[in-house]
Specification:
Length: about 300
């Protein structure tokens, strides 16, 4: 691979690209403990058996599941058991379930029922050696996919380790290289971008307390982009940081690229937030390795009390 000379994350920040509505659309997750080097396509370019990786990727596509590889900070090898986490990031219900598999038996991954991730309750697929964590904080450090993920993600991981932050994992590509450092919090499916190492521990401490960092908030993965945009604009308007402090009531399209989204603040007012999106007129560097492309831009059309 030719070494990238362009760095997408500094360029994105320099042009003032907004973070709003940039979370990947995911409600079903499979996080597989797999230390060692990851390639640009982590699942197929890792130490996993290639046939198993291909079959797992195909099964995940059928069931709409995002597969991530993960390792504990500094982890070099697996022990006798491989931790696998199934997570559901629904609008109302969310959960994580852990299954511990024989690390030497790669094909055991193919015995997981990925269809169970569609449901609001955990399936009880196995009896883990340890209880499933209540949360996972995934920091993308997949430098072979995009150098910015390593350049900005690894300092964040080191800072979190130094602060003894719990449930921290390095992970493969989560989407949005140009917003590095990226953190995805499960099971909520909250994406944070442009996280600075000096601020990372405080951001996660607030998140564990149920508070969103609005400056780094990319959105919730359970929502489509226009709803993510409305959620973000409403939170800024109300200075609403509580994760459960804002609920989406409905969303109606009002034309091409425009939607009216009604939200309700807990113990507060209901709003109708009209948002729009259009493609940027000029191409920009969206990843370090890829060709420049046209990004989406989201705008607040109107916001009013109901």
């Amino acid at each position: 691979m030719v070494e990238a000379t362009v760095r997408c994350a500094p360029q994105s920040q320099a042009r003032g690209e907004a973070l709003v509505a940039t979370a990947s659309r995911v409600q079903r997750w499979l996080v597989v403990e797999q230390p060692g080097a990851w390639g640009a396509d982590a699942l197929s370019q890792s130490r996993l058996d290639p046939d198993t990786a291909a079959a797992l990727a195909a099964d995940a596509r059928i069931h709409g599941v995002r597969v991530l590889l993960a390792r504990r900070p500094g982890q070099r090898a697996l022990r006798s058991r491989r931790a696998v986490f199934l997570a559901h990031s629904g609008v109302e219900r969310r959960w994580i379930e852990q299954v511990n598999l024989d690390a030497a038996d790669h094909k055991a991954l193919l015995g997981l029922d990925l269809g169970s991730l569609a449901f609001p309750d955990p399936p009880g697929l196995g009896r883990p050696v340890e209880p499933a964590p209540t949360s996972m904080h995934l920091v993308c450090t997949n430098g072979r996919h995009d150098p910015c993920c390593a350049d900005f993600g690894r300092p964040v991981v080191r800072a979190l380790v130094d602060a003894d932050a719990p449930d921290v994992w390095e992970c493969s590509h989560v989407g949005g290289d140009r917003f590095a450092a990226n953190i995805v919090c499960l099971p909520e499916g909250v994406y944070y971008g442009r996280v600075d190492a000096d601020d990372a521990a405080g951001l996660l401490a607030d998140h564990r307390a149920g508070l969103v960092d609005l400056a780094c908030y990319r959105g919730r993965s359970c929502y489509p982009p226009l709803v993510q945009a409305a959620d973000g604009f409403a939170r800024e308007h109300l200075a609403e940081r509580r994760l459960d402090g804002l609920s989406v009531l409905s969303a109606d399209r009002r034309g091409e690229g425009i939607a009216a989204v009604r939200v309700q603040q807990r113990d507060g007012e209901a709003l109708e937030v009209t948002v729009g999106r259009e493609r940027a007129s000029e191409p920009a560097q969206l990843t370090c390795h890829g060709q420049p492309g046209l990004m989406w831009r989201y705008r607040l059309v109107d916001i009013r009390s109901l």
